[in-house]
Predict the structure.
Amino acid sequence: MNNPAISNSINMKKLDIKVLYVEDEKILRSIYTKILSDRINKLYVGENGEEGYDLYKKYKPDLIITDIKMPVMTGLEMVRKIKAKDQNIKIVIMSAYGQAEYFMQAINYGVQGFLLKPVDNMQLFSLINELAQAAILEKRVKYQEVQRRKAEQALKRSETILKAVNFASEQFLKINYEEETIKKVLQRLGEASKVSRVYVFKNNIYNNRITTSQKFEWVAKNIKPEIDNPELQNFSLLENGFERWINVLSKGDSINGLIEDFPESEQAALFAQNILSIVVVPIFVDKFWWGFIGFDDCKTKRTWTSAELKALNTAADIFGAAIHRGEVEEKLRKLNAELEKRVEERTEDLQNEISEHICTEIKLRESEENYRQIFENANDGILLTVNGIINFINPKIYEITGFMPKEAISKPFIDFIHPDYRELVLTNHKKRLKGEKVIDRYDIKAFDKKGNEKWYEIKSNVTSWEGEPAVLTFLTDITTRKKTADELKELNKHLEKRVKEELKKIELQQQLLIQKSKLESLGELAAGIAHEINQPLVGISMGLDNILIKSKNNEVTEDYLNTKFNKLFEDIERIRNIINHIRVFSRDQDLIDFEKVNINEVINNALSMIKTQYKNHNVKCTLSLNCKDCYTYGNKYKLEQVILNILSNAKYSIDEKENTVNDVSYQKQIKIKTYENKNNLFINIEDNGIGIPENDLIKIFDPFFTTKKSEVGTGLGLSITYGILKEMKGDINVETKLNKHTIMKISLPKTV
């Protein structure tokens, strides 16, 4: 006689878990290997505890089923060793020894089940199913944890980029635009953004022809440098197909994306450098397009977030400001050196050649005039102090502080410094005059004419004036730059919190929308369900009345009672099945795993809840379930929700047509048809209602789009239907003719 558990298992979907079965008796091992193979996706079999332990170490199964008494190593000893490595492993003992000591020892080791031989197969399968579901749930939780960590990593990367931008700001504020500083900044930006290559190009314009040359570069490990590539020197953007770059970058906008999506004229040069995705941000110096900074990813096709792009644009602005300041300072240094050299030459000429005195004096005046022009038109504030007293200032000092020359000259420069920084500035000033080593530049606070605190970068050089030691000091207003740096720090602090809050809100809204759609479906079905429950209730009531009448007349027999009670229990079972079906349909289906689903059975289940409603509303429902091998893979309750959503729209359509046409012969009809081909299953649901206007076809699957009145529908049904079918790797299409018919065509992959 066949074992029903074995025969039934053939038709069941295998559990997607790994199971280790350890049994020393050959016959039992052979029997249960066959039984478990029909139920389990991956089964590993061992003959004793030692072999079982080796198989566990090799395959890391989700569930272990083992005997107790076995040669070489007992089942309990094997369990003890495995539990020492993995406390969460699911283990079932299946043994002929039922002594309490074995049972207690198994419990102490954390065994989840203890079955005595001979084992009831259904009990075994029930326990396996329960433990399998727990193991699958644990896997899912681990997967979700991995996804959460990925999101956190993306947020952390954005935070790291902001820190790198802040680092760049600090470096350029403290140190001049020098090659060593630029390399450090490029390295920090590259490591923070996790790209393959970061570089800086400088533009050259000659006869209205724009070329660009690579000046600096940082590359990640195992990435080919391009700094020595001759093709990237004096590279003509226009002649090499990069006209788009000129138009976009010169306007201050950045370029980013996947190279495969770029115009063909740009792809060859970029693919030659193994670039998959890129970000290019323009660098402006004093409102002039100086060049650009680029970020290459040669390993992944990367999509950049708006926060990352904004941070990199800020980095480019910082580069531009640093370059501008460096160029101005370099020009001043060269002019100062040239001036000193020429003054010395002229002085020597005066001493040696008195006859050339007039000529030398003229040239000296010219040199002084050039120096005065630079002094008065410099972008930085300049002041000269002798013995701590301000002798003169340039116009830029008035622009950034508000003090006129008469309000500053002949006063101690220290009076204008913030009290918190006076000691620092005065100490550095004295050391500099003594020839001691002092930091080249640093930031201080000072007051403007209105008494406001402002940030300045200060840089001083020792010189001489009218035979006395003097200090030439350069001031740059960095108040805005400091404020930007503080804003970046504050943005970085609150960014992660805001992202988490928004994600939580979106997730909650999605859950509420889906549950709202389910409640709408159940509300529409309430009348039909009540009728379905009322019929067996009437049967129960009448049966009990008959029993009471027979009892009063002493006509009750045992056979009569058995017959009546069986009928009553059948009606009770019918009600229970209806309620259970509604309860499962209405709960959160995201917690139910995908399984093998019969689409004909799903259609019949859906119709069981609305057939009375259709009958009461004179709706003729025609079924043509021609699909025989009609199994797909998914969630049968979600698929049932899809059928009910479409049938609800179909009923609304035919009801509307009945209310608008003056045709007493009009028969409301809904046709449901299933069929199949080699790879797919198809469900067609057709109604002879009002149809769908052509302009609305492209919007019917959008959330909240509906042509119904606000009290009838919310526009969520077809949006949720579309999402469920895509989740099951299916699709849905619409064929409609206004005032004639609408056919909703569902396709799903066939499962063997």
Notes: The CA atoms of residues 342 and 430 lie 29 Å apart. Residues 1-11 have pLDDT under 50 and may be disordered. The chain is about 50% helix and 20% strand.
